[in-house]
Amino acid sequence: MRDKLTKMPSFAWVAVTNKCNLSCGHCQRRLLKKQGLIIPKEMSARVFEKLEQELIPSLKKIQFGGNNFGEQLSASNWDDIFARVSKFNIDISLVSNAILLTTERMNVMIDAGVEFNFSLEGITSETYESVRGCNFENFITTVTEACRKKAGTRSRVNLGFTALRDNVTEIPKLLSIAAGLGVDRVTITHFVPWEEGQRQNSLVYHKALTNQILGKARELARDYKLLVDLPLLFTTDESPKNKDLSGDIAPMSLAPCYHPWESVSISEKGNVMPCCASSVVMGSLEDSSFSEIWNNRKYQKLRKTVNSSRPLSFCRNCGLRGLEVGDMKPLSFCSDEGILLGAIGKSDHARSSRYTLRTVKNSLLKTGLGSKLVPYAMEIYRKHVAFYAIAILDGRKPALSKKDLRSKSQKKHHEK
Ligand SMILES: C[S@@+](CC[C@H](N)C(=O)[O-])C[C@H]1O[C@@H](n2cnc3c(N)ncnc32)[C@H](O)[C@@H]1O
Ligand code: SF4
Ligand code: SF4
Fold it and tell me: Taking the CA of residue 39 as centre, how many other CA atoms within 13 Å lie in the half-sphere pointing to its CB?
């Protein structure tokens, strides 16, 4: 086969379930569930065996969760899957709400050197509980226990804080508590509204306040010697230069992407996707082997286009570009209004085609027949149509200008 890639990915996001023990107010899962678009599912033994035989042996790192709307510790087969994966000599990371992390599970996972990434949206009972709907004290007790137990091991405890209007002012307190507990890293990401009613909770509408808090957070991170990933500052009249708070120039949408060569995202259904930023399905492990998918026509097309002047539309403004594969940092960078408001549309701008499609889908879901057909139609679309439809539509778009494409040498490296 032409352009066959013999090297397997070194990093994988894997979701073994889309079930969840919570129903957080900010999470798209709540909306999808209400619309009947979440059909509870756990990874089948057949798909997991394929991963175990074909993919996991090549990995340096596997990350459970963070690539779907679900809680991996909710999976009935979690303990078995974890035991099997931890036999491989690879780094294991988990994105979790921490609620189902019993002491017994924690001990086993710390022995295996797991990197925990616990999520929260508030550092007071009031804000945390208003979003997560579960007890803050229990959460913080688990984080404290994990921080105490990981000391002197290779295990790490990171916190992922989704920032929205109602909690942004708590970021300084978050950093102070994290430093006190011995947390290894704090990653602040933007809330992405999924429903019109959530619009004003986006920090896009609170730019000056957000920039002020992020500036303060940078100082605190330095004082506490704490590794903190912060989103880019918003561009406002007061801050014409959009700089990455770690000091580099903003990492632009068109830096090279390494993911189609080095990483892969696998859903509980066995769908293979190029990364956690895209839900376009490259192939299904229910129907094919991983190596067949890794070198199929879709993957060849993606590798050919992703760093060219004609990237597919889902790759054009992607926050993961230019960033190290397997790093938690990428997700925190984006402060692009178009991306942050992509799901609900900017109220003062022309509607995007993505927004129009979503509106049509949501209207259909409100009808009797639509609510039965749309979930299946969406699955078929994602699996069999989306990639080619996007490729055809993108063929009509103008090529990007050469000055937009950066770091050609890095790009070449990944085109080998
Ligand atoms: C979807 S959850 C899945 C993993 C796990 N259940 C958890 O809560 O950590 C992964 C991350 O996405 C974040 N998230 C959920 N809804 C979001 C939204 N609307 N905008 C931005 N991040 C969101 C969560 O806060 C969490 O940090
Ligand atoms: S725990 Fe995670 S997946 Fe579940 S509703 Fe909350 S943010 Fe979403
Ligand atoms: S550009 Fe973004 S969406 Fe496209 S493959 Fe890379 S990480 Fe995925």
Answer: 9
